Amino acid sequence: MNRQLLGYLVVTIIVAALPFLGVYPIFAMKVMCYALFACAFNLLLGYTGLLSFGHAAFLGSAAYAAGHALKVWGWPTEMGLLFGVLVAALLGLVMGAIAIRRSGIYFAMITLALAQMVFFFFLQAKFTGGEDGLQGVPRGKLLGVIDLAQDINLYYVVMGIFAIGYFIIWRTVHSPFGQVLKGLRENEPRAISLGYDTDRFKLLAFVLSAAIAGLAGATKTLVFVSATLSDATWQMSGLVILMTLIGGLGTLTGPIIGAFVIVLLENKVGDFGQFMANLTGAEWFLRLGESVTIVIGLIFVICVMAFRRGLVGEFSAWLERRRAARA
């Protein structure tokens, strides 16, 4: 445990120093928002065994709720964030109460169908701005003191929000409640035979996951001062699955690594294609740079074929093999 805490401390110091090491703050904040979203999804799939294909509904609903509260109602920043989390949690309660009545692929399809209903509601509702989205959301001042219009101030606020969300997930996984969730994942009939109300535990896990995903969505609205339909599409639900599987399903740090890989590809594949085209004169590199989804798909196939546990899972397994060989 001491080594783990030391590792977290070292990573925290490195992340805090990134803006001074030449890393663009907006890029780092985007990674943290998506990483928190992926961690929330991993809590549901990796530790409870429930595949939700509609998690973008919570990201998008919190983004719109926080943006509307900040821009139209003029709420303080912290209240807008909490309102976004509350809306996502309530939506999670409704969707979860319906979806947990089924399991497996039926659970996934129900969550997808409900998320699509939420998406079309956002598309037609006036307060969301339709296809244009909700633009010009003010960042405001945190606690009336810290000016979030400056990226460096917002960076450390987002870092603190991510740390809070990650700690909640870490504490949940290492609590008796988390052990019950793992039991549900491994053998639900046995958990029922031991007297656990499995539907109640699954619903609690679903609502908690939705609330943390909502925290990521509300924070993302602050970072990009906007909320758009892309936050609520089924493609976003698929993207968070990719993040989790690439990083390592059922690991605490895997979704963070997966989110970093996906965001890095989205932002840098085009630059790499341009660089290689200039270097070699081959125009097909330009087309490669424009086809980010193809590159992400190829990397996902490679990870599934060669790293079935994900990057973090395979690395942990390699360390275990080394320890066993030494012993």
Automatic annotation (TrEMBL):
Its main location: membrane. It holds the Pfam family BPD_transp_2. Signal peptide: none annotated. It comes from the Bacteria. The chain crosses the membrane at residues 6-27, 34-59, 79-98, 105-123, 154-173, 203-227, 239-265, 285-307. CDD domains: TM_PBP1_LivM_like. GO terms for cellular component: plasma membrane. This is Branched-chain amino acid ABC transporter permease. It comes from Bordetella genomosp. 12.
